[in-house]
Amino acid sequence: MKRVTKLFTFTALLMGTFIAANAQMTDVSRGVRLGIGLNGGITEKNSPFKNGYGADLRLDFQLMKNVAITATGGYTRLTRENGGDDYDFIPAKGGIKVYPLTATGFYALGEIGAGFGIKKDSKTSLLWSGGIGYEWIKGLDISTRYEAYSQDSASSTYVPYNGQFALRLAYAFKL
C-alpha cells in the first residue's frame, strides 16, 4: 500500500505543478487527437507480479465540448516477482473521457476491453481501467489509473484477478 500511496502522491504533486505553471488554457477545442504514451506501474499487494510497463497509442474523438470517446491499443508486460512467466499482452480498449472543467485540460477516463496474450497458451483477459489526467494544448498528457485484469482459467499465465496502479506519460497531436 505504501508504494501505491507514494505513486499517487507523486502524480498529484507533478500534475499540480504542471497545472499551476500552465493554468491558462485558451483553446478547449480538442477535435481528433492521437497520443503516443509510455506506461509504468506497480501491481496490487497480493499479486504474483511485481510491476508493469508498456507503450500505447490512444485516439481521442471529441463528441462534445467536454466528452470524447477513446480507442487505445499497445503492449503491456507484467513482470513476475519470483521468476516464472511474465504476462505479456496487447491491450485493446475503448472508453469515455470526460472534461468536468471545460476550460482546463483536466479529465477523468474510463475504459474497458481485452488483453490478448502473446505467449503460447496465454488466453485473452478482460481489462477495465479508470483514472484521471491532465492534457495541455501543446500535446503533453500525464495521467494515473488503476487497471484490472481478469484472465481465463485455461491460460498458461492464469491469475484469477490482478491489477496495477499505473502512470502514463504521453504526447498527443491533432489529426
Structural class: mainly beta
Give me the number of helical elements.
Answer: 1
Whole-Å distance between the termini?
Answer: 40 Å
Q: CATH architecture, please? A: Beta Barrel
Keywords:
175 residues; mainly beta; Porin; 8-stranded antiparallel beta barrel
Description:
This protein is mainly beta. The chain has a single domain, classed as Beta Barrel (Porin), CATH 2.40.160. It has 1 helix and 8 strands. It has one helix spanning 2-21, and strands at 32-43, 49-64, 67-80, 87-98, 106-117, 125-135, 140-151, 162-174. Strands 1-2-3-4-5-6-7-8 form an 8-stranded antiparallel β-barrel. Strand 3 (67-80) and strand 4 form a beta hairpin. The protein is elongated and about 45 Å long. 30% of the residues are buried. Residues 16-26 have low confidence and may be disordered.
Brief write-up:
This protein is mainly beta. The protein is 11% helix and 58% strand. It is elongated and about 45 Å long.
Topology:
Elements: H1 2-21, E1 32-43, E2 49-64, E3 67-80, E4 87-98, E5 106-117, E6 125-135, E7 140-151, E8 162-174
Antiparallel strand pairs: 1-2, 1-8, 2-3, 3-4, 4-5, 5-6, 6-7, 7-8
